[in-house]
Amino acid sequence: MNLVLHGARKLDADGIVDDVWLAVEGDRIRAVGTGDGWRTAVTDSTELTEVGEVAEVIDARGGWLTPGFIDLHVHGAGGHAFDDGHDAMLAGLAVQRAHGTTRSAVSLVANPPHELEASLDAVARLARVDPLVLGAHLEGPFLAPTRKGAHRAEFLGHPTPHLVRDLVAAGQGSLLQITLAPELPDALGAIETFAEAGVVVALGHTEATFDQARDAFDRGATLLTHAFNAMPGIHHRSPGPVVAAFDDHRVVLELIADGEHVHPAVLELAFRSAPGRIALVTDAMAAAAACDGDYRLGSLEVTVTGGLAVLRGTDTIAGSTLTQDAALRTAITAGVDPVQAVEALTATPARAIGRSHELGALRPGMLADLVLLTSALEVELVVAAGERQSPRPD
Asked: Which of 121, 148, 149, 153 is nearest to 136 (CA)?
C-alpha cells in the first residue's frame, strides 16, 4: 500500500457517497469503503511492508474525490504546443495534469503527411514510456475546407486508401483517434479502415448532412468532435450531424465547456439530449493555464485576449485556453448535475476509447487515477497511476 485517503465525498458516475476512504497499492485502487475502515488498511500496510514503507495517509477533510479526468482532445498548455515535439508534449501534459487531467490524447493539427508521420512517431515513442498518454489524435488532414477552423487549407486533403494506410502504420498502434469529414471522397471507406485498425473515428470540421452523418456512424464512426463547432447547426428542416449524434446511442459527443465555444444553455441541452454520452474536452492550445499574448497553433498565428484564442486578425476561434477542472465548474454552473458533469470527464471518455474496465471510476481494481477537489471544485491533489502529480504553479 502506498497511499490511503480518507474523509472524502466521492463523486463519480456511480453517484455521491460521503465519508469515503480509498487505498492505493502500486498503480491500482486496492480498496474503497466508508467510515473508519481506512485504519485497517493502514494497519495492514504496516504489517505487510518493511519499516518506513507504510502508506501515506491523507485526510481529505470532506473534499470532493473524483476519478482522474480524461481529455480526448488537447493540443497543449502552459505555453507548449504538442506539435512542437517531444519536450513540448511533456511540458504541456505536465500542466494539464496539475489541473486534474490524468490521461490525455495528444492532438495534432493538420500538416503535410510527412510531418504528421513524424509527429505520430514522436507520440508513439512517448506513449511507450508514459502510460498516461492515451495515444495520438489526428484532427485532420481530412477536413472540409469550408469548416477548416484553425487548420491551413493547403494541408487538407482526401483520405485516399494509400494515405490512410500510411498514417495507421506511422501510428505504431498508438493512433487513438482521427477526426474527419465524412462527405469527402473516400471518407466512408477510410472510416471502415481506421475502425478496423482500432482507431476511434470522429466526425468533425464537416459540412455533413443528417443522413451523411448517420451513414458514417453506421460505417464505424463513434464520436463527434467538439459538437456544434465547425459543423452545421441544428435547423428545423436540416437537422445536421449533431441531431444524428443525439439519435445514435453508439455515439459520444465532445463538448468544450469554456463558455465561449458553446453557450451554457446549449451545453445543458446537450447533456439532456444525450445522457451518458457527453465527453467534456478542452481542445486546449498552448495558452491554456498561461497568460494572454501571441502563440502558434501548428503553423498558424494565434492571439489570446481575455483567455479567448483566435486566429490573428480574425474572429475565428483557435482552440481554447481551458483546463478540465475549469470545464467541470463551467458545466455545473450551466445547470448540469455534478454526477453527470464528472461522468463526462471520466467514465464517458473512458468508454469512448474502450478503457472503461480500468479508467473512469473509483472502484477496487481500477487504475489509481484520482483528483481531490475543494468544495469550490479547485484542485488540491492529483494522483495518476498511483503517483502524486506535481502541483500547478501559483
From this structure: 121
Q: Which of 83, 248, 283, 325 is catalytic?
A: 283
Structural domain of residue 60, as residue ranges?
A: 3-66+362-388
Same domain, 313 and 175: yes
291: left (phi over 0), alpha (psi -120 to 50) or beta: beta
Write the pLDDT tens digit of every residue in 12-71: 999 999 999 999 999 999 999 999 888 887 776 655 444 445 679 999 999 999 999 999
3-state secondary structure of 111: coil
Pairing of strands 308-311, 300-305: antiparallel
Whole-model pTM: value is 0.94
CA distance 345 to 335: 16
Cis peptide before 141 (omega within 30 of 0): yes
Catalytic-residue membership of 218:
no
Inter-CA distances, 137 with 41, 305, 313, 392, Å? 40, 27, 28, 25
d(CA 266, CA 324): 19
Are both 93 and 144 inside the same structural domain? yes
What values do phi and psi take at 353, rounded to 5?
Answer: -110, 15
